[in-house]
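We treat protein structure as text, and this decision shapes the records that our systems exchange. The tokens are whole numbers drawn from a learned vocabulary of local backbone shapes. Below, we set out a record of this kind in full and without editing:
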Amino acid sequence: MPHVVIIGAGPTGLDLANKLKQKGIKDIIVYDPRAGDYVRPGLLDVDIFQRAEAGLSLPLNFNKQTSHIRDIEKKLYNQAILQHILIEKKQFVRLSEEEKGIYVAYQNEQHELVEEFVPCDYVFDCSGSKRVLAHNINSKHERNKLSKPFVTSPISQDVIIKKHLIAYLKIDNDLALKVQNPIPSETTIFSGKTPLERAQALEKLRPFGWTEFTIPACYHTHFKENKNCFYIECPNNLPEEQKQAWLNIVLSIVTDQTTIQYEHMKSKKGRSKPNFTLFTVDPQQLNCFTYHEQGLPHVVILGDGQMEPNFVLGHGIAGAFERNDILIKSMVVSHEEITSYDAQEYNRSEKIIYYNAKEYNKSVKDAIKMHQHAIIDYYKIRKIDFRAGANGVKPYYTDAITQTTDPVEKALLTERLEEITARTAYYSALYTIAENSVQLNQNNSADVLEALTDAKQVIEQALSKLTQFEQREATQISQRLIINFKNIGYQALQQAKYGLAIKAYKEALGLHAINGIKNNEERLSTYASLIVCYRKTGQLENVLAAFQEAAPFLEQASDAIKKKILFHVIKIIAKNLNVPMSDNQRLKSLASAASILDTYHDVINTHLAGSLKLELNKIDDAIAEVHNSSMPAKKVENCPNF
């Protein structure tokens, strides 16, 4: 039976297969329905091939001028064939739950899908971002109502533009050279242009869904005669049928040509190549890379499945090769058997691959840190570029409005200027929040509260003008602001600055209400602190009003938070029974108390009956006195308990 199964015959899977074979493992099989048919677009740096050669200690005879992803796939595929590695056009179906192996499927001569069980000891998932093994294992856990072992998360929170276009074109080389820098220089592009012409150029991008006030990243690589490969950022919602028009408009702006003459490169006869394709880049990372269940194959996730790359940085394939080496180096081969330094694992079966999964996960996580930081830094810089663009374009739109004589265009530019003003004010508010969050101390809490409150109001006013990305970001910022306001409130409460604390806690609660943040425990914690402040300042009516606001969220709350809120509410109600007040006020207070005692009877008896014995007796006596008196309670509104 196959000792090792590799799912995926891309660069990662083929590199791993070749290295395992060189390590001495003979029983290897690679499954991929597209194996041998390599048409994947994308240019590669020469160092990727050099890295592959170094890893295999073999010459791959690659083109040192220009090479593509499909070229390295072909080279690695041919090397695998030379090493007699079995590669079959079959697709992974599922991991067996009963036997040590997997199921794959293939189409028979009748074009029917036929499943086949393949016994094996180890399965390496080299399916890239599809992560077919990881998804299959997660599905099994979900069916069994268990937590999923594999979880993906974004590497960067700053990915504003996710969609990109790759286009292989035959185009005049002099024209293509104008698209040389990944981030086009707008100073060069708009040199000699009037503010109106600049605004008009940017407005041509808007109907496609482009939300930024900069030119999309657009660059090319020349690889033969007048053949060039272009990469262009696109609106995230750009439909397939508009990619041609988008290519035209971007090239027109960047090259300053009204019309662009080019031809799409045709695929060779009988072969379809994706030479003009939209693709999405939003790098995700996996929380762990290994899985094993007793009696089933060991599973290892590799390559892009561990961490998706950013194609601009060109680290995807090189990083995958590096992490393959980490796996290979963890193995020891002896007489065609892969064994471990751990004597307990040696010779358990005829042929074993043993590795320390915990150590492997740690080593891989260490290896990808640099790539993760590179991705995070790239998107931070890109976000700065976009926001600088909005800030920089404001005076041009202001002047453009005065230069246009077209009333329709004037109205559109005026509306766009309002958007620019709102968004740049939002960016300033974010800076204010970040700056003041760091500077908070015991001596400046009032100033910080004022600055953060002003920034919060700016965000609320700008919200309708923000992009979808910025609106999501604003929600996250609001969640952080809640923490900031609570920190100010806590600090003020400790210093007995109750007025300041009340303002801060009310700002926090206002954000909960506006943004629909569903962390009710956090919200109730804020209500509890607000009620403490009201109690300390003897504001019974405000305590009761705050309790009424909090009440809808109390039902699902923990006993600890219920106990805290009820303690302070009962305390102030009892204390105020000694304070002179009108009959109407007294009845309202006691009606609230009676409702609270009835609704939260179990919590009070369990947690507060001892600590609030005097207060509870006092309230009970007062309620009894009302029932036994001739006080005209029926005339009091909102007192259903009397």
